[in-house]
Batch of 2 targets.
Target 1
Amino acid sequence: MTTRITVAHETDIPSLLSLNNRYAGSGLTLARTPDFAANHLGDYRVLRDANGGILGCVALDEYSPSVAELISLAVAAEAHGLGHGRALIEAAVALAARRGYATLFAVSYSDDLFLHCGFDRVPLSTYPEKIARYQQVDRTEIEVGEKHCFARPLVP
């Protein structure tokens, strides 16, 4: 299967939301709205199949000029196990490095995936601003238990 990672476009928003929100009910991703996606469109990267359809997505969310979070990582079920998650993470890392962030962090159940992509496990308390956002958006996100925080320093 031929795939490529590209910048997301406005016409991709319904597909992005469908893919991302498919995993929100199980707590794997936070539900995203059309407004969120539209306001962060330049922060998204999408994995496209040979026909241009979206098989996966990832985005960045800035916390400060030096720190961003990797968010909305999702790969369609039929494309699991093919290395697409790693490719999307690397696309997000490259984007974060180009933008000059010193650190990229993520909160996920996918320990092995993030560890294999050069992230280290760190306490969530390292990012108090993340905890504050969780409390505003969805308190259950910090109460789910097994999600872990990962960080990767970026070389300018």
Target 2
Amino acid sequence: MQINVSQLLKESTGAKRNYQVADIVDGADSAGMVEGEVRLLRTNRGILARGTLNTEVEVTCSRCLSSFRCPIALNIEEEYFPTTDVVSGAPLSLPEEPSYFTIDEHHVLDLSEAIRQYALLAIPMKPLCREDCAGLCSHCGHNLNLGSCHCPSQATDPRWFKLTKLVNERKGTE
């Protein structure tokens, strides 16, 4: 996802450009289509990239362990700093910030790494293939979304006997 920003770097602070994005970007584990819009804004130090992008990532369901494509929305906001002056070609000093994105010596801004990082942060902590995922049988490991397993029913803990009896009596009267 590369954009040549040489003309934007020649303009004054506050100049803007909008770009439609529809490109395949390498993610954490696989490549995926990224779509949306990015606005580039010329700042006094470089170019601020802001955008709302949509993509899908391959994840594993935390209940049934099935792989599925999870849609995610990315709200990107990063400042990119030029490494060379666009007019003279002289090298520029970079900021002393711990991590930053740069515009290469050919004045190309590459959004791929920022998209990858934002996608990693947007992946749900406990992804579910669907809201009502039944998970796995605790005995045999059968995926209960595919149907019930043939394990014998669990023996009830004797401490719950009176409560179970009460529930069964209540079911009988309804």
